[in-house]
Amino acid sequence: MDDKPIKILLIEDNPGDVRLIREMLTDVTDFPHHLECADQLATGLVLLAKGNISAVLLDLSLPDSQGLDSLAKVSVQAPDVPIIMLTGLDDERVAMKAVEKGAQDYLVKGRVVGSLIVRSIRYALSRKRAEEELKKYRSHLEELVKERTAQLTSANKKLQREIIRRKGMEEALRVEQQRLFSLLDGLPASIYLQLPDYSIRFANRCFRERFGKPEDKFCYQIICKNKAPCEECPTFRVFETKKPQHYEWVYPGGKTYEMYDYPFTDIDGSPLVLKMSIDITQRKSMEKELQKTQQLESLGILAGGIAHDFNNILVSIVGSLSLLKRHTKSENNFLKILNKAEKAAYLAKNLTQQLLTFSKGGAPIKKSASISELLKDTAGFALRGSRVSCHFSLPAGLWSVEIDEGQISQVINNLIINADQAMRKGGEIRIYADNVTVGADKSCLPLKDGKYVKISVKDQGGGIREEHLSKVFDPFFSTKQKGSGLGLAISYSIIKKHEGYITVDSKVGEGTTFHIYLPASEKEIFLVENVKEEGGLSGIGKILFMDDQQNVREIVGDMLIDLGYEVGFAKEGNEAVEIYEKAKASEKPFDALILDLTIPGGLGGDEIIRKLLKIDPQVKAIVSSGYSNDPIMSNYKQYGFSGAIDKPYGIKGLGKILYKVINISSL
Length: 667
Fold this sequence. Notes:
Layout: E1 6-11, H1 15-27, E2 33-38, H2 41-50, E3 55-59, H3 68-77, E4 83-87, H4 92-100, E5 105-108, H5 114-186, E6 190-194, E7 200-203, H6 205-211, H7 219-222, H8 234-241, E8 245-250, E9 256-265, E10 271-279, H9 281-326, H10 333-358, E11 367-369, H11 371-382, E12 388-393, E13 401-403, H12 405-422, E14 427-438, E15 450-458, H13 466-469, H14 487-497, E16 501-507, E17 511-519, E18 541-546, H15 550-563, E19 565-570, H16 573-585, E20 592-596, H17 605-615, E21 621-625, H18 631-634, E22 643-646, H19 651-663
């Protein structure tokens, strides 16, 4: 302990207490000190302001200040000087509050002796010195901490920036994921996120509508209705290879889906697979239809050329036979032979007509028609002499259809003949027709949305085997020993060109039903009365005949001369235009022209007529073609022609068309 006297300030207004405390302190021989006294708080504060006070003995009851308020004022004036409270009251609560407010000790007058006061002062001073040492140590430590803190602060700022950046990225990722889920929810494909344990992390609206909510279920349970994972799960190839997968999957129920599997990572980094399935059942059906159409188009190019060339050959045959008939007496037996030959030639024409159905030139010439009468007439004709009967179910109010009556009649004829041949022991064919609307029932028919008339032809035959059903419309496919395999292929082509659809249902032992969908017509049906043809065969005038085939030019030339006409010939369009123009400038112009519609490597009739109309707006031209189904043949007036004649034709048909074109101005 330092022997230097300790300077103590006693703030006490009671002189007796002052004297008593002074005496008690003096009695302690080993406590050198100097005691200053103040009887008011204000005086004490002045003495404190001068400094050098080591400790304060403060009475709580003073003339100018009372209680803890005095303690507060002394603490403010000398914050580093220890304060010992003196009071005549033994109040523990006051003592506790005094200590809480900063007093070092709390002494009750009358219960203290000098040694107690000295011990309290020494304890306060010791603690003060300890606090100062601690303050120095703390200051040094703080310098060290400050230096280290600066380093940590710098590192922490970097860390905070990184944390903020990562949180921003996580939040952005979370927002993007939510946006992605919202986007996936609106797509018309089934999409879900699968975890490696086969559970589903997310499923979009389309998936939920198809399979229900996937909570607490595995993919193989909700999708495939299995109790265990699939033996070869395509999804696990994505988990293993981290590469997308694209494949087709046939779900239970028969529908085909195009599958896209992509590796995906959740926000927490866990692996997922995003699976998207698109229903392609209808597309697959349409692809099959497209393949059939492409096959038919390829065959059609060949068939059209064959039919055209064959009709040119038939012109020579039919023309020659008609010339022979014209000069053969009716009582001659040779005439009967000629009639049979001519009939056979026209049957050959019917075969070329079927081949033309495949070709580009076989486009239907459509008009509004009632399907009911066509079905009845065609079925009645096809079943003449047959043991098979026909039952019709044709409700009133059937929509009219936009069809080529000849071609649709050919389709119905083919179906009825097939049905008749399938029931060799007799039976009944049932023909139904109904109005249907495609699109409203969400069917998978490869048709545009709209109104259709559905026709069904059902037989009671032995049916078609399942492995043959997909081939029945293929060209040259037939299960009959004598079948050509063209009937149904032709029917398919005709319906396709009518923008309709034909399909078949069949079970062995239960019969076969063909269904045809034809577009309904918005047009009104007009009934056209037959116009009686008048006029003879012979004629007078000059005719220009153009055809690229020499044999055709020769036989038609013979028929024209036999009819009484003067004839000029041309092989192709430019030659025909040149000859016609020269004749028009002379005194002997042509009264009419017969122009072949198709000239390989040269100008055909449709191109020539435009040139001729510029030379002579009153030109009378007849278009002729082996492609009898070409739209120009049906609508010849729209192209500037005065008439049309199909190949092959005989002298009678040739004479009639020339008579009409030359002599009847209304045509």
